[in-house]
Design goal:
Number of helices: 2
Strand order of the largest sheet: 1-2-4-5-6-3
CATH architecture: Roll
Strand content: 25-35%
Number of domains: 1
Distance between the termini: 22 Å
Length: about 190
Amino acid sequence: MSINAEIDPFSRPQSPPDSDAGPGSGPSTGVRTGPNDEPAGNAMAVADLPQPAAMLPQTGAMCLLERIEAFSEAGLVASGCPHRLEPHPLASDGVLPASAALEYAAQGIALHAILRQLQKYGSLRASTGKGESYMVALKRVRWHREALDEAPGPLSVAVTAVALIEAGAQYDFEVYDAVGVSRASGTAIVAM
């Protein structure tokens, strides 16, 4: 299986003027596409990629990502996050806290790792079990808003692989809303 939906690792739209998450507020994910941005040169249609629900171990309402928008060796953008579910599985007292963005990021990172395995080996390697990975450390996490549930439209997550080795990876991540306002960002260290 050859997956090659190219993403320009140096492009990133500017935050909208009403955003308080201006330049330097979080990591540059390199694969972030805003509502009007298209990933560059899709050699394989993103529509041909497996859906997140078919790849992630989370089921039902806990599968927070619905669609892959862009994928490359460098990173992934996924969206369609049902953050307004009643009741949302991560909500506390009816509010979806910004910290829930970490689960969105974890699922985006898992999708990127799974798609890289599929691209490299044609399937998940037996030595990695079910493709399980674990977030072992977080750095520079910033909550740009207190809650996610007031975000307009679907949430999106962009993850960029900063360092990849056989036993793990470091990813920058950003969770943003339908108008491109950053909700949370940071760096995750993952053991695979």
